[in-house]
Backbone:
C-alpha cells in the first residue's frame, strides 16, 4: 500500500465517522458548547526517539461525537429544592471526539538526517472541571519514516511505513472566547525501530 493510499484510507475513516454522527446531532443546540462541535488544534513541542529530543509539530481536527450533560433534572414548580441551579459545575458537559491528526519531527546529527511524518486517528474523551478540561485519548496511525545517511560523499536513503498506536493525555483551559490553550503528553508504540516515541507539546485550540 502506497503512502497516498494509506493517507486516503485514514481520511476516509474520519469522514465516515463524521458522517455517521452528524445525523444524530442535527437537532437545534441550546447550549453554547453544543454549538461548537469542531475544533482545530495546532501545537509545537518535543519528540524523544532513540534518546534524542527533536522539535515536534502537530495539527489535528476534532469532531464531537458525544455530548453528555452532568446537570441533574431540576424539580419543577414551587417544590424545587433550595439551591438547585447554583452549583458552578451544573450544566458542564463531558464530551467525546474523533480526532484525525498530522504530526512531524526530524533530526540531523553528523551524517544522519531522519524524519517521521505521522497520519493518524484517535478517540479523545474530555472531562470538564471548574478550572480546566482534562482529556485522555488513544488511537492508531501510520509513521512515514525517512532516513538519509551521508558517508564518504555518498547518500544512502531508507524509507519505511510503520504502523503504531498511541495513548495521550492533557489539560486545556479557555484563553479567550472559542480559543483554548492546552498542554499534552503521549507515547507512540511503533513497529520496528524506533519502537517508542515520547512526546510533550502545547498549543492553541480553535473551536467552531
Residues:
Amino acid at each position: 500500500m502506497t503512502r497516498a493510499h494509506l493517507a486516503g484510507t485514514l481520511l476516509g475513516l474520519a469522514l465516515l465517522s463524521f458522517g455517521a454522527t452528524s445525523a444524530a446531532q442535527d437537532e437545534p443546540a441550546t447550549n453554547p458548547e453544543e454549538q461548537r462541535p469542531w475544533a482545530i488544534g495546532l501545537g509545537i513541542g518535543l519528540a524523544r526517539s532513540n534518546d534524542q529530543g527533536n522539535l515536534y509539530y502537530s495539527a489535528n481536527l476534532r469532531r464531537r461525537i458525544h455530548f453528555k450533560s452532568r446537570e441533574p433534572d431540576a424539580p419543577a414548580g414551587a417544590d424545587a429544592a433550595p439551591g438547585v441551579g447554583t452549583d458552578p459545575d451544573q450544566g458542564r458537559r463531558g464530551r467525546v471526539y474523533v480526532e484525525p491528526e498530522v504530526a512531524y519531527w526530524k533530526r540531523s546529527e553528523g551524517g544522519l538526517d531522519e524524519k517521521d511524518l505521522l497520519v493518524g486517528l484517535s478517540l479523545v474523551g474530555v472531562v470538564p472541571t471548574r478550572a480546566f478540561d482534562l482529556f485522555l485519548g488513544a488511537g492508531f496511525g501510520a509513521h512515514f519514516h525517512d532516513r538519509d545517511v551521508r558517508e564518504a560523499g555518498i547518500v544512502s536513503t531508507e524509507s519505511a511505513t510503520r504502523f503504531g498506536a498511541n495513548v495521550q493525555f492533557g489539560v486545556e483551559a479557555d484563553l479567550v472566547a472559542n480559543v483554548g490553550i492546552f498542554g499534552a503528553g503521549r507515547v507512540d508504540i511503533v513497529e520496528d525501530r524506533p519502537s517508542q516515541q515520547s512526546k510533550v507539546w502545547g498549543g492553541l485550540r480553535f473551536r467552531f
User: Anything to note?
Assistant: Confidence is low (pLDDT under 50) at residues 15-29, 73-91.
